[in-house]
Amino acid sequence: MRPIVTILMTGMLLLPVPSLTRAERSDLRGSGTPLTAQASSREQDLRRWWQNLSPEERQRLRALRERWQAMPPEQQQAVRDRLDAFRRLPSNEQERIRENYRRWQQLAPEEQERLRGRFRRWRELPPERREALRERLQEFRNLPPEERERLRREWQERRRLEGAERDRPHDMPPRPVPRPRAPRSR
């Protein structure tokens, strides 16, 4: 599940960000009237934020100006916060996210929609269920590679035999180590 979440989060990180006002653009280019003292704190924050971006980040964001202008201020702030958080990540983590995003872009639209549906269903699960699934996934990851591969083959064969075309986030390999279950109370 983590790669899917990472891919989706990467897509959200790359949503459009600031389109500057004419005064801000002039000020940033150094040719024109600087922002006046009457500029709102929001405009000043945006200006500082924009100045701290790398030229590459600015170029990427300029292409998305129209979508940015259509966003409500709260959504713009959320996007800026995500981008700031991304910029604070170690470079190897940033590169991993970029690679996942490139992989996401290469997926067919139908596959992207299928994964979005899985992510939506994952978010709708109760927190206890998500935590239990995370624990099972961690147990699976802690197994030796040969055992993981054997379980994957069994899981795929079982799905094939069932004819299941299900696409649920809780479709996971079988639990590697059975645990006793508590009796249900009715």
Write structural notes for this entry:
This protein has 186 residues and is mostly helical. It has a domain of 43 residues. Helix content is 68%, strand content 0%. Helix 1 crosses helix 7. The longest helix has 18 residues. The radius of gyration is 23 Å and the shape is elongated. It starts with a helix and ends in a 24-residue tail after the last helix. The N terminus is likely disordered.
List the helices and strands and how they pair.
Elements: H1 2-13, H2 22-29, H3 41-51, H4 55-62, H5 65-70, H6 73-88, H7 91-106, H8 109-124, H9 127-142, H10 145-162
Helix pairs in contact: 1-7
Question: TL;DR?
Answer:
The chain has 186 residues and is an all-alpha fold.
Structural class: mainly alpha
> What's the total count of β strands?
0
Sheet with most strands = none
Fraction in beta strands: under 5%
On the 0-100 scale, what is the average pLDDT? 75
**Secondary-structure element order, as H and E?**
HHHHHHHHHH
Counted by DSSP, the helix tally is 10
How far do the termini sit from each other? 32 Å
From the alpha-carbon coordinates, what is the Rg to the nearest angstrom? 23 Å
- As residue ranges, the low-confidence spans are 1-10, 12-20, 24-29, 31-35
Which percent range fits the helix content? 55-70%
Shape: elongated
